Amino acid sequence: MANKTIAFLLFLGSLLISSTASLVAEEGPKLEPITITVQKGENLSLISKRHLSDPNRWPELLKFNKIPNPNLIKPGLSLTVPVFLRKPVLGVAEFVMGTVEWNGAGGTGPWTTLKLGQELHAQDQIRTSAKGKVDLHINEVGLVRVFHDSLFEVRGKETPNSAASLALMKGSLDAKVNKSQEKPKDYKLTIVTPSSTAGVRGTEFRVELDPKLNSTVSCFEGLVDVNAEGKTVALTQGMATFVEKGNAPAEPYQIPEAPRLKSE
Length: 264
Prior knowledge:
With about 260 residues, the chain is of the alpha+beta class. The protein contains 3 helices and 20 strands.
């Protein structure tokens, strides 16, 4: 009897350890303090927009770094951004080819070269050159590949339980979204363009903008809902729709089988 009791307790212990490990594994990446060096052309306002969750908390940044005067923010100065002031990390650049630039202040301020492994935050913008391409891992979503001659913004989530939102202002992208474990109607990602919004659960799909900002959305696997001007069409595997800016989506049509999206 004693042996059975001991075995049962050991079994419960292993379950507890396994459950704890699972919870830890499901947590998002933890923020760490970062140290930045002020570059030529940067000022306190721009640094706050790029790195602080609330740019208005710049006095706390100065206090943490024991800087008594904002006028002391000059090129070459090192600043530590503590965790309690940092923007949440929404993703990371996993592959970069050609010229790809990053703007961490919602399109304001100077553009800088996007580096492999660079963290992504809400309102970060990315633009690619004629030969540029970048793969982005978006936390809790999956892989997004931004192609050449594109302009793209990470919007983040409006609430902790809402879908992640990305904006495509120019060019094209492919995405492979992890299959959702939630209710079938719950989106994991929305792609916003000037002419349409695509709501995605777990799927592989493409969004393309032409020079007039009309959009074509193609579904390679899974299901994508495309909305514009109050009308929504559902795309299943092998279907696409065209959305002229200012008009509702066209009826879905069949497309040739597309190659599967793989990491570079």
